[in-house]
């Protein structure tokens, strides 16, 4: 994100495919606090360690948490992968301070690759890649699959846009 010379790009686009959720979120949170603008695309492809059934049970326990007197005031439970990632990053930032609110405003997270970013170069973060961080043979699940199990209805729509992603990869190779 920030090169060795201390010069940073105006906006960094991170391709979140096959990155571990917590590791990616912590690196993104640190960069946001340092003043970097970060855009995370393909949030539905983020990996979580542990099998799908285990993660679904954990999330269902989380969904049961609510405020007794007025549930609409209580914890808001996001179902979309981009919002789940956003909330994970929010937990790593002092979001109730002016500095933290400014940092969180510099983060954009999307499912798929929306049009302004499909023709830009996307980065990966080696410290958060699944192949380097998760041991071989360990179970994992994708955030998009978990989201579709707990109530997100657009998983199939995002899967259709894979052909658009391959065409943008051809554009970047030229």
Describe what this molecule looks like in 3D.
- With 174 residues, this protein is mostly helical.
- Helix 1 (21-33) packs across helix 3 and helix 2 packs across helix 6.
- It has a single domain, classed as Ribosomal protein L13 (Ribosomal Protein L13p, Chain: A), CATH 3.90.1180.
- The relative contact order is 0.21.
- The chain is globular and about 55 Å long.
- The chain has a 3-stranded parallel sheet with strand order 1-2-4. Strands 3-5 form a two-stranded antiparallel ribbon.
- The protein is built from 8 helices and 5 strands.
- The chain has helices at 21-33, 52-63, 81-90, 98-105, 130-133, 143-150, 155-160, 162-173; strands at residues 12-15, 38-41, 47-49, 107-109, 140-142.
How would you briefly describe this protein structure?
42% of the residues lie in helices and 10% in strands.
Task: Supply database-style keywords.
174 residues; three-stranded parallel beta sheet; Ribosomal Protein L13p, Chain: A; 5 strands; globular; mainly alpha; two-stranded antiparallel sheet
List the helices and strands and how they pair.
Elements: E1 12-15, H1 21-33, E2 38-41, E3 47-49, H2 52-63, H3 81-90, H4 98-105, E4 107-109, H5 130-133, E5 140-142, H6 143-150, H7 155-160, H8 162-173
Parallel strand pairs: 1-2, 2-4
Antiparallel strand pairs: 3-5
Family: Belongs to the universal ribosomal protein uL13 family.
Organism: Eucalyptus grandis
Keywords: Ribonucleoprotein, Ribosomal protein
Q: Please, how many domains?
A: 1
Instruction: Determine and state the CATH class.
Output: Alpha Beta
The shape, in one word, is globular
Helix and strand succession? EHEEHHHEHEHHH
Share in helix = 40-55%
Beta-strand residue percentage: 5-15%
pLDDT < 50 runs, ≥5 residues = 3-7
GO molecular function: structural constituent of ribosome
InterPro entries: Ribosomal_uL13, Ribosomal_uL13_bac-type, Ribosomal_uL13_CS, Ribosomal_uL13_euk/arc, Ribosomal_uL13_sf
Pfam families: Ribosomal_L13
GO biological process, one term: translation
């Amino acid at each position: 994100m920030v090169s060795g010379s201390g010069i940073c790009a105006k906006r960094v686009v991170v391709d979140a495919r096959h990155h571990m959720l917590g590791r990616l979120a912590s690196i993104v949170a640190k960069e946001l606090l340092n003043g970097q603008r970060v855009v995370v695309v393909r949030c539905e492809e983020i990996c979580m360690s542990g099998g799908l059934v285990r993660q679904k049970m954990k999330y269902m326990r989380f969904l049961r948490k609510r405020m007794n007197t007025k549930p609409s005031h209580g914890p808001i439970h996001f179902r979309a992968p981009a919002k789940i990632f956003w909330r994970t990053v929010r937990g790593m930032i002092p979001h109730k301070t002016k500095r933290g609110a400014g940092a969180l405003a510099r983060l954009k997270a999307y499912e798929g690759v929306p049009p302004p970013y499909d023709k830009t170069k996307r980065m990966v973060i080696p410290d958060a890649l699944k192949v380097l961080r998760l041991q071989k043979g360990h179970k994992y699940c994708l955030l998009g699959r978990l989201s579709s199990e707990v109530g997100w209805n657009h998983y199939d729509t995002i899967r259709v846009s894979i052909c658009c992603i391959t065409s943008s990869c051809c554009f970047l190779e030229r």
